[in-house]
Design goal:
- By secondary structure, the chain is of the alpha/beta class.
- The protein has two domains: 98 residues, no CATH class; 214 residues, Alpha-Beta Complex (2-enoyl-CoA Hydratase, Chain A, domain 1).
- Helices cover 39% and strands 19% of the residues.
- Strands 1, 4, 5, 6, 7, 10 and 11 form a seven-stranded antiparallel β-sheet that branches. A five-stranded parallel β-sheet has the order 2-3-8-9-12, sandwiched between helices.
Length: 346
């Protein structure tokens, strides 16, 4: 069923999409003629921005291009790009296998030490009352080990928060500047101690806006849900901050993309929260993975990510306060946090 493909493959879909966006031009790979027809039909029926394309004209151009691989590639790339806002892609079976192997290697690599940051080079020292967690990109390989991958990564992020939460922390920084995307679910689960503002209630932190209405993201004390369906869980109650609902500064930048943008949106509208840095990549839409008849796949963009107040247009997410350098961004975030009543002693 499509909903199952969406839930299990969203992380891999986002990872493949980002890999394709960053990859150099390669030898021409094409879907078979039958798969080309299937791909265009699927885009016309379901793609988020399908009304941006003249489909009869696109089909005529595709038919006329037969026999010229470069022209076929260009027509298909335009059809996918325009109807997905630049987020979707066609993926050959060979490329998919290669990406799954790459993700296996990445996920098996040793984790960074708690509190370590890819953006912290020459960064100013933070006031000891400020905690910091970096939520980086992370993708899941669908299969029997997917739940374990999610639990381990989410538990690792929560452990980072727990180790810093010694009773003196009056504010927190969530750094998403290095988050290139992947699966949003372990991110939302891992950062839940900071995202949540209650100890035990279920909280709506965002949604997918679809043609059938919003599909809300729910944060519970131990899990994340899409609507009523549990997507990922820790298998036990998650960590709760000593100061529930403490102020949070969220850092974003041009590398923050896809599921990284979903995480940024989940914090938008949260009480005692402000964002700093630069606008995000502009891929705040969601993909589903759809297999094609020849074994290749289509990353089909079908919905827009929105915050808990229903705000979001699929484009770049601007921070509340624009700052450029690492030093300026951290300084502004810290100054705001230290001015909050929780830190100022109010």
């Amino acid at each position: 069923m499509p909903v199952d493909i969406r839930i299990t493959s969203l992380g891999l879909a986002a990872a493949v999409a980002m890999a394709l966006l960053a990859a150099p031009a390669a030898a021409i790979e094409l879907p078979t003629r039958q798969a080309q027809i299937e791909l265009v039909d699927m885009l016309e029926r379901e793609a988020l921005y399908r009304d941006r394309v003249d489909w009869p004209e696109m089909r005529a151009r595709l038919s006329a291009a037969q026999g010229d691989p470069e022209k076929i590639r260009d027509v298909l790339k335009e059809a996918v790009g325009r109807s997905s806002g630049g987020h979707g892609a066609w993926i050959s079976a060979e490329r998919m296998r290669a990406e799954v192997k790459r993700l296996d290697r990445v996920n098996a690599a040793p984790a960074a030490a708690p509190g370590a940051s890819a953006t912290a080079v020459d960064a100013p020292r933070l006031d000891p009352r400020i905690g910091r967690v970096d939520i980086g990109g992370f993708s899941i390989v669908p299969g029997p080990g997917a739940r374990r991958q999610t639990q381990e990564r989410a538990a690792r992020w929560q452990a980072d928060i727990r180790e810093q939460d010694n009773g003196t922390r009056c504010g927190w920084i969530v750094d998403l500047r290095g988050n290139t995307g992947g699966s949003m679910w372990p991110m939302l689960l891992g950062v839940a101690p900071l995202l949540r503002v209650t100890a035990g209630a279920d909280e709506t932190v965002g949604s997918f806006a679809t043609a059938d209405g919003p599909s809300p993201w729910q944060s519970t004390p131990s899990a994340v849900r899409l609507g009523a369906r549990v997507i990922d869980d820790l298998g036990m109650p998650g960590y709760s901050l000593k100061r529930t609902g403490a102020p949070v500064a969220v850092l974003t930048g041009p590398v923050t993309a896809s599921s990284g943008e979903a995480t940024a949106l989940a914090f938008r509208g949260r009480a005692r929260t402000r964002s700093f840095g630069e606008p995000t990549r502009g891929l705040s839409t969601a993909n589903v993975m759809r297999p094609l008849v020849d074994g290749s796949s289509l990353l089909l963009t079908t919905s827009v990510m929105q915050d808990r107040n229903g705000r979001g247009d699929g484009r770049k997410i601007a921070p509340d306060q624009h700052t450029r350098s690492d030093a300026a961004t951290l300084a502004a975030a810290q100054a705001w946090l230290l001015a909050q009543p929780a830190c100022a002693g109010g």
